[in-house]
Every structure is written in C-alpha cells, then in structure tokens.
Amino acid sequence: MSPNQVIPADRLSTVLKQYNLEANDFRIEPVGSGHIHLTFRLDGSKRFILQRVNKNVFRKPEIIASNIRIAAAYLHSRHPGYQFITPLPAAGGAQMAYDDEGFPWRIFQFFENTYTVDKVETASQAFSAAAEFGRLSFYLREMDVSEFGFAKF
C-alpha cells in the first residue's frame, strides 16, 4: 500500500486519539513513496509526521521502538546537542499506537526545512547520508550494545 492509497478516516482518528490529537485539527497529506512504511504529514496549529510501521517487514516493532528509545537516551546523556529524531510517546507513555488491524503507528515532531530522499540521485546526497551515518556511529561507538534487542526480519 502506498501513502496515496486511502487510510480510512476513522482509522486515522483512532490512532491520533491515542496521541491525544484530533484528526479534524489537521490537514493530513501523504509523504514519500511508502516503499516500506506509510508516512503522513499532519498540518495544523502544530505539525507532525505520522508513520504506520509495516508489521509485515518489522515483525517485532516494539523491539525497534525500544532500541530507538535506548539510543536516544544514550545520545541525550553523552551528546546533548545531537539532534536524534525520536517518536513521541502515545497516551500513557506507550511507545506506539495500534490500529484495529494491529499495525503500529508512531508520531514525530515535524522539523521545518527537512525532507526525505527515497532514492539517492546525486553524489552529494550519498555523501550527506554517509556523513550523518558516520557521525551517528561515532557517537554510539562506546555504547553497550547488549542493551539493544535483536529483531529478526
């Protein structure tokens, strides 16, 4: 399913309520190609990125969510100036919200002047991605990786 295919409004509403948000407060538009996940931009008085995780690819998404949280805590304590984008918690502190089909959803704060690249088309794009991955790897180099869960694909 690509983001251009319609997610029923009641399903989006159910997911957003789990984040204490109302669907009617936002203009919801698809973002990207939907190659793995479905991603939407929510435009309202606040802006968010809402993403449905593909549970058919990531069969244990709670492990991925936990690993992101663990890495974020480490980076925040060791490299507080590093901007590591992490999902916002759902109501009650849950790491993700779930729809009636069992798909996990996560939501992120929207960062102005950012964009996604579905397919690298220039050497500059490849260099930027590699440089940022290298910086992240450098910052995580002393982390105890035994804290991470292992998620089979």
Description:
This protein is of the alpha+beta class. It has three helices and five strands. It has helices at 9-17, 61-78, 123-140, and strands at 27-31, 38-43, 47-52, 97-98, 104-109. A five-stranded antiparallel sheet has the order 1-2-3-5-4, with no helix packed on it. Strand 4 and strand 5 (104-109) form a beta hairpin. The longest helix is centred in the middle third of the chain and has 18 residues, at 61-78. The radius of gyration is 16 Å and the shape is globular.
Which features characterize this protein?
29% helix
Task: Give the arrangement of secondary structure elements.
Blueprint: H1 9-17, E1 27-31, E2 38-43, E3 47-52, H2 61-78, E4 97-98, E5 104-109, H3 123-140
Antiparallel strand pairs: 1-2, 2-3, 3-5, 4-5
Quick structural summary:
By secondary structure, the protein is an alpha+beta fold. Helices cover 29% and strands 16% of the residues. The radius of gyration is 16 Å and the shape is globular.
Residue fraction in strands? 15-25%
Main sheet record: 5 strands, antiparallel
What is the number of helical segments per DSSP (H or I, 4+ residues)? Answer: 3
Kindly report the average pLDDT value. 89
Radius of gyration: 16 Å
Kindly state the percentage of residues in helix. Answer: 25-40%
Low-confidence stretches: none
**Helix-strand pattern, N to C?**
HEEEHEEH
Question: How far is it from the N-terminal to the C-terminal residue, by CA?
Answer: 19 Å
- What shape does the CA trace take? globular
Counted beta strands: 5
Spatial order of strands in the largest sheet:
1-2-3-5-4
Structural class: alpha+beta
